[in-house]
User: Fold this.
Amino acid sequence: MECPKDTDLIKLFYEKQDDLKKLSLMLKDDEGKVRYIGDDTIRAENISKPRQAEYLRLMKRLGEGLTVRAGEKEIWISFWNNGGLSVGSESEKGIVYLPDIKRRKYTIKENLDSLDTNFGDGVFVRLIENEWYIMYINSS
Assistant:
């Protein structure tokens, strides 16, 4: 699968905005309990089976092949990852909810489409709106 363009992720954000915001509210309510959500997998503690099923239904509406990692007040939604394709290097691109970006040392860019060839390692973000960003992670 090819790395998505910024414009594709921005379009997707606006098409799926209601579901993304619902996911962020659910994860805020369950803060510290949910660590990972994949197509048919959820890693969580003290979450009821109906609540887990609700997360998985929401993930299906967002699209296949996504992964969600929830951290301290942050939500990382990966739409593309090449980690399994190259030894010793990994890149990931998606949408991230960062309500307190100032406490992180992420590099803010206006375009993330050519980062894999033009920049070194790091976490790079591009603002979509409010606390929602496109993220690109590159590590070698």
Observations:
- Confidence is low (pLDDT under 50) at residues 84-88.
- The radius of gyration is 15 Å.
- The beta strands are 34-37, 42-44, 67-71, 74-81, 90-97, 107-108, 122-129, 132-139.
- The helical segments are 6-15, 17-29, 49-62, 115-118.
